[in-house]
């Protein structure tokens, strides 16, 4: 552990999508550094199980919540208020999409991905800011997006949604600086996590190709994303807001996704 063991002592964090994968790893890292944590996601049973495991490291509450539903997010804010009385850090990690060429995405599929990744992130940010960050005159938001620096062929819906979140981050960072609220993004490349298991062939083969194409020759690890979140969540980054930190082994500068997508299409 490279950060001070009490870095987040007395701090309260909400990690959306904290029941699995990257969100679970972020919650785990925050708890190990003294934070009190709340996690939410849609599926109650695995969420409860994750909270039980995480509670071995420190206080961890959970509540089922679909981030696309403002009323559910309001109830989550009330619960955090009654359990912990404050919120210092929001990690907007919940999200996802499905691989598809743009022409094959249905209207519903497009809307599901935009609602989850862009609208959901906005609802949670605004509601947590109104309940906690603005009245407290302090807060920190870290948005988990994806590397879509050069577009995202094969996942155009999520590329558009995450670009929206990146721009929203720049706007909120400026509007809320006066309330001592920082807002930043972490943009992972391909990370070995539960999320990748949701993809079937031929995407699995594509993932191997993407690994070979990566200049570091590998996919990323959940801890590497969590470490970036810890930095942005901590006073070590106190003069940093409105930015994006890539955790992608250089994919944002180098990878040729269109070539890889074409390879899958012709196989
Ligand atoms: C190609 C490169 C691969 C490497 C990528 C590496 C970078 C990124 C990695 C990750 O992000 S890993 C994390 C991934 N985890 C997830 O994606 C899990 C969560 N995902 C979801 O929950 C869904 O994708 C969702 C669509 C956002 C869920 O929304 P919802 O629950 O509302 O969906 P549904 O009601 O089931 O469907 C709505 C609509 O969407 C269509 N759809 C859903 N899945 C697919 C699919 N696999 N293929 C095509 N279409 C899909 C579904 O059919 C519905 O549309 P209609 O049929 O009604 O038109
Ligand atoms: N793994 C990777 O390579 C990369 C992942 N990312 C992003 O990082 C984040 C975490 O990914 P990862 O851990 O790998 O994947 P997971 O699929 O394991 O995590 C997604 C989490 O989001 C929750 N979630 C999804 N939709 C909603 C919703 N509407 N409301 C509340 N919670 C929701 C899910 O729980 P539930 O189903 O119970 O709602 C789940 O816990 C995602 O945003 C993902 O797109 C970005 C780049 C790369």
Characterization of the model:
- This protein is 49% helix and 16% strand.
- By secondary structure, it is of the alpha/beta class.
- Helix 4 links the parallel strand 4 (89-92) and strand 5.
- The longest helix is centred in the middle third of the chain and has 30 residues, at 107-136.
- NADPH dihydro-nicotinamide-adenine-dinucleotide phosphate (NDP) binds at residues 16-17, 19-23, 41-43, 65-68, 93-96, 116, 120, 144, 146, 188, 190-191, 193-196, 198.
- This is Peroxisomal trans-2-enoyl-CoA reductase.
Low-confidence regions: none
Spatial separation of the terminal alpha carbons: 44 Å
CATH class type? Alpha Beta
Second-tier CATH architecture: 3-Layer(aba) Sandwich
Question: How would a crystallographer describe the biggest sheet?
Answer: 7 strands, parallel
The helix count comes to 10
Subunit structure: Interacts with PEX5, probably required to target it into peroxisomes.
Organism: Neolewinella xylanilytica
Family: Belongs to the short-chain dehydrogenases/reductases (SDR) family.
GO molecular function: trans-2-enoyl-CoA reductase (NADPH) activity
């Amino acid at each position: 552990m490279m950060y001070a063991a009490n870095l987040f002592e007395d701090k309260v964090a909400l990690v959306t999508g904290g029941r699995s994968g990257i969100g679970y790893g972020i919650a785990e890292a925050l708890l190990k550094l003294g934070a009190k944590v709340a996690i939410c996601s849609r599926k109650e049973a695995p969420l409860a199980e994750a909270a039980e495991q995480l509670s071995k490291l420190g206080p961890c509450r959970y509540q089922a919540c679909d981030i696309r539903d403002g009323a559910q997010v309001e109830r989550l804010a009330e619960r955090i208020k009654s359990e912990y009385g404050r919120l210092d850090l929001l990690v907007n990690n919940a999200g996802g999409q499905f691989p598809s060429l743009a022409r094959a995405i249905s209207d519903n599929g497009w809307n599901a991905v935009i609602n989850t990744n862009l609208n959901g992130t906005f609802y949670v940010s605004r509601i947590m800011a109104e309940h906690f960050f603005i009245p407290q005159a302090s807060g920190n938001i870290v948005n988990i997006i994806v590397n879509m620096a050069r577009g995202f062929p094969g996942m155009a819906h999520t590329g558009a949604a995450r670009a929206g979140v990146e721009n929203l981050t720049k706007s909120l960072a400026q509007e809320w600086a006066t309330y001592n609220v920082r807002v930043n993004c972490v943009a992972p490349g391909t990370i070995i996590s539960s999320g990748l298991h949701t993809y079937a062939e031929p995407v699995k083969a594509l993932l191997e190709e993407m690994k070979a194409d990566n200049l570091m020759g590998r996919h990323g690890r959940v801890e590497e994303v969590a470490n970036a979140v810890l930095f942005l969540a901590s006073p070590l980054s106190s003069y940093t807001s409105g930015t994006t930190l890539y955790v992608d082994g250089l994919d944002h500068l180098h990878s040729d996704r269109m070539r890889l997508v074409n390879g899958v299409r012709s196989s």
